[in-house]
Amino acid sequence: MIRLCKESDRGKVLEYLNKDRVLNLFFVGDIDNYGFDNDFQKIFIDEDSKGIHAAYLVYYENLLLCSYTKELDKDFVYKLIEDYKIENISGEQGVVDTMKLDGYKNDDCYFCKMVKRPSIQDETVEVAKTSDVEEIAKIIKIVFDQDSPHMASNIEDKTGRTYFIKVDGKVVSAASTTAETEGLAMVVGVATLPEYRGCGYASKVVEKLCSDLLNEDKIPCLFYNNPAAGKIYHRIGFEDIGQWALRRNQK
């Protein structure tokens, strides 16, 4: 039976997700940071007398899927997509691949976590304030053709942070975190303006960001789909631990 979760379900839901806490970082981080009683976030579980078989989390227009046994209720997923006007669907690749998602572009990635502390920290890397968001968001738009609607609020409520580096007074590279929670943080939005690539700016930003996270006993995680980027992340200290699927609405 599928049902909407309440705060009283927190322990049960987290016990299920913590079976693979790292791979479920988005799930766990969103629950820890926003709970069960927000209009923009809803958590559902499919359970019977044997326990939970699947979990579904809606965060604004994003849908997260989790099922260790790959027992998604496909009709329910389609209903969530329609009811919440879902733009992005993500989860462990083997789980997401059980769904037929017409109109969604595949963007499969490697999921990795940091296993070795970066050896270099560049002091020219800066920590963003909300006043820096507008300029950084322009880089994200240029590189990924995506908006950054939650960057400022993440900085304000400390559920995420953004680091950047300037050249001649201009922001040229940046990286952020999201879903920060006890012991873990997801690194996202690693971007460098095209004309400044190949100079190591992104590496410097990510190294400083990850060093600060480790100083707070938070293991950095990220995903990538570019082999060249993967080589850089591996050199910095990341290791692949799984495969992650992201489906973007192309309609």
TrEMBL record:
UniProt cross-references to Pfam families, sorted A to Z: GNAT_acetyltran
Residue ranges constituting the N-acetyltransferase domain according to the UniProt record: 123-251
Transmembrane regions listed in the UniProt entry: none
UniProt-recorded Gene Ontology molecular function terms: acyltransferase activity, transferring groups other than amino-acyl groups
Coiled coil: none
Top-rank taxon: Bacteria
InterPro entries: Acyl_CoA_acyltransferase, GNAT_acetyltra_YdfB-like, GNAT_dom
PANTHER family in UniProt: FR47-LIKE DOMAIN-CONTAINING PROTEIN-RELATED, PTHR31143
Name of the protein in its database record: N-acetyltransferase domain-containing protein
